[in-house]
């Protein structure tokens, strides 16, 4: 009994000591940046009643831990500078963070285009090699999701921008931060909290979602979920990626082999995407094609070009693996084929492609897929043999990270109330089917975050969706245009700003490579609205119109010293309609700060639209070279409106 009592006593003392230790959330750390010219909150946990003392440089702060184990220190506002040391002490414990800078802290959030890393964007090698910015620091918040608001992030640490680290940071946020640092000459901290493919609802708190009829029932539905659901989904997710990355049933040995018999497989004309493979499908598809190489290729090192495939894939030549992609991050998909793998005459090309989330396959055009010796090309377009279900089906994933509030709970709530300068945001692709609802969803997020931070209407700057998908030959409705409209309407909230990038997207790539320009345009918005720099103009934006003699005169703001076209040619991108709501491409002429729009097919014009398409052909710019923001003069019901 004495031994049992002694053991229990030691156990209780051990637990008490653990609780007594000072704990500080992971948003704080060595090399962090704290917000200048604002009171600086620092918080954490210890045993109730613990006297907490803090020093930051020469500033001191005190607090007492409450009954809930929480404490909060309030340091006075600092000017930009450093480095400082932050020290927090309790009764028998202290925590110290070194190399702390004071500057501007921006929270960078959204989905994959904000998450897209420097190493995967334009001029990656050049940009990383030139990355030496010790006063620009990033904290990349680890992916995490939760049913309830969490007190700490799942992981992440502050790191400076240098050749070892920059490649893994958000490209948009890096180029934004670099520009602001150069112009303001103050340290810049970026808290990057991003997750690809996620809707705006996942980033909004429960209270904000309950306040909107659009999301109230969906957030209430979360109440039926349990931790067991999360655990089961996590197990399925491990199996999911195991199948995607590791061929099953010895498939990678048998199927790519030259001797494999695929005569019974159906054929498909490549390039083709998942929708061309007989409708919606999720799983692994194997494809094979036999090509004949001429004698002139003998002894040469050849390259194979796959254009821009969607999703994960592995490439094989005559049974040998040439590459295996990890996720869908590569900008270029050309590979060297060693001479010993090839032979004159017939050779077998095999592809193992994951078809996931409605994507997968090889994107057009047909002339982007071939084998070449540098002078001659052998096309890979045309008939391929293909077969589904040669490997086990991938488990159904519930994607809880896309459920309302799940990412807010785990990746935003733990950051509050870390003092920030503002937010930069790039998201909307995952809400393409809900453009009309986005008019409420997006402002709800902004209001929700501002209410929680209690820093007033802090700057919230965001990127409007780029041009993407196929160019349509005639004016038509567009889900992406309706999301862009909702984003533009959100500027009615105070202290918001939008960067238009309708001219730098890519038809076949939802992740356009030119992140430098995206960061630059966000920095222009910040320069004008946040830092009050003179001489900065935003892109031309619609302010009004009137019909005069069967023509429509469109008035713009943000024209600078005048309007023009990017290519010096006639204005493109305008469509016009009468009361019948049938739109036709229109002629357009620039007259000062106005554009006169007309068409012989519309005698009595009622409405005008500009750049109203997934991937509009448009060229109107201002004197700063910034594109005109897409708009419409009508309020006719769109295709995403319930």
Automatic annotation (TrEMBL):
GO terms for molecular function: sialate O-acetylesterase activity. It comes from the Bacteria. Gene3D superfamilies: SGNH hydrolase (3.40.50.1110). Pfam families: SASA. Residues 104-214, 405-523 form the Sialate O-acetylesterase domain. PROSITE patterns: PROKAR_LIPOPROTEIN. GO terms for biological process: carbohydrate metabolic process. The keyword Signal applies. Residues 1-20 form the signal peptide. The keyword Signal applies. This is Sialate O-acetylesterase. It comes from Chitinophaga flava.
């Amino acid at each position: 009994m004495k031994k049992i009592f002694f053991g229990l006593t030691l156990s209780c003392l051990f637990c008490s000591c653990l609780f007594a230790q000072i704990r500080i959330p992971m948003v704080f750390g060595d090399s962090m940046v704290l917000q200048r010219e604002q009171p600086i909150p620092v918080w954490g946990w210890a045993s109730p009643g613990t006297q907490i003392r803090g020093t930051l440089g020469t500033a001191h702060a005190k607090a007492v831990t409450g009954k809930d184990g929480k404490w909060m220190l309030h340091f006075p506002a600092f000017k930009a500078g450093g480095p400082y040391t932050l020290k927090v002490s309790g009764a028998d414990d202290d925590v110290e963070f070194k190399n702390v800078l004071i500057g501007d802290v921006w929270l960078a959030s959204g989905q994959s285009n904000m998450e897209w890393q420097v190493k995967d964007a334009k001029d990656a090698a050049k940009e990383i090699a030139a990355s030496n910015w010790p006063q620009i620091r990033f904290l990349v918040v680890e992916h995490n999701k939760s049913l309830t608001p969490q007190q700490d992030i799942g992981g992440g640490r502050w790191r400076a921008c240098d050749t070892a680290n920059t490649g893994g940071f958000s490209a948009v946020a890096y180029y934004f931060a670099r520009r602001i640092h150069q112009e303001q000459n103050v340290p810049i901290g970026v808290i990057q909290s991003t997750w690809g493919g996620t809707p705006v609802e996942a980033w909004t708190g429960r209270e904000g979602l309950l306040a909107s009829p659009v999301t109230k029932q969906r957030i209430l539905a979360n109440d039926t979920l349990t931790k067991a659901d999360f655990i089961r989904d996590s197990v399925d997710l491990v199996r999911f990626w195991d199948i995607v990355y590791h061929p099953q049933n010895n498939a990678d040995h048998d199927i790519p082999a030259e001797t494999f018999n695929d005569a019974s497989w159906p054929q498909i004309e490549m390039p083709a995407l998942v929708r061309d493979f007989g409708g919606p499908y999720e799983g692994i598809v194997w494809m094979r094609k036999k090509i004949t190489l001429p004698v002139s290729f003998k002894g040469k090192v050849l390259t194979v070009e796959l254009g821009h495939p969607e999703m994960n894939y592995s490439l094989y030549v005559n049974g040998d693996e040439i590459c295996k992609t990890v996720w869908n991050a590569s900008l270029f998909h050309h590979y060297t084929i060693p001479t010993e793998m090839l032979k004159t005459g017939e050779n077998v090309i095999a592809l193992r492609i994951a078809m996931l989330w409605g994507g997968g396959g090889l994107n057009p055009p047909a002339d982007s897929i071939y084998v070449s010796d540098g002078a001659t090309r052998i096309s890979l377009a045309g008939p391929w043999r293909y077969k589904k279900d040669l490997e086990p089906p991938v488990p159904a994933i519930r994607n809880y990270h896309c459920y309302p509030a799940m990412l807010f709970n785990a990746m935003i709530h733990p950051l509050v109330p870390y003092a920030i300068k503002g937010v930069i945001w790039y998201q909307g692709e995952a809400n393409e089917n809900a453009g009309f609802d986005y008019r409420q969803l997006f402002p709800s997020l902004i209001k929700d975050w501002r209410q929680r931070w209690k820093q007033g209407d802090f700057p919230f700057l965001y990127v409007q969706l780029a041009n993407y998908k196929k160019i349509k030959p005639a004016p038509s409705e567009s889900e992406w245009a309706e999301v862009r409209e909702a984003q533009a309407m959100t500027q009615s909230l105070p202290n918001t700003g939008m960067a238009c990038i309708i001219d730098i997207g890519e038809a076949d790539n939802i992740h356009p490579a030119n992140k430098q320009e995206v960061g630059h345009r966000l920095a222009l918005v910040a320069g004008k609205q946040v830092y009050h720099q003179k001489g900065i103009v935003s892109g031309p934006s619609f302010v009004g119109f009137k019909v005069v003699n069967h023509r429509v005169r469109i008035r713009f703001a943000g024209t600078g010293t005048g309007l023009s076209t990017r290519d010096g040619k006639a204005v493109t991108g305008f469509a016009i309609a009468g009361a019948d709501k049938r739109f036709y491409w229109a002629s357009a002429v620039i007259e000062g700060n106005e554009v006169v729009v007309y068409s012989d097919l519309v005698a009595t014009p009622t409405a005008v639209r500009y750049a109203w398409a997934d991937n509009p052909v448009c060229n109107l710019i201002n004197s700063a070279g910034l594109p005109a923001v897409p708009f419409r003069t009508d309020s006719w019901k769109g295709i995403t409106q319930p």
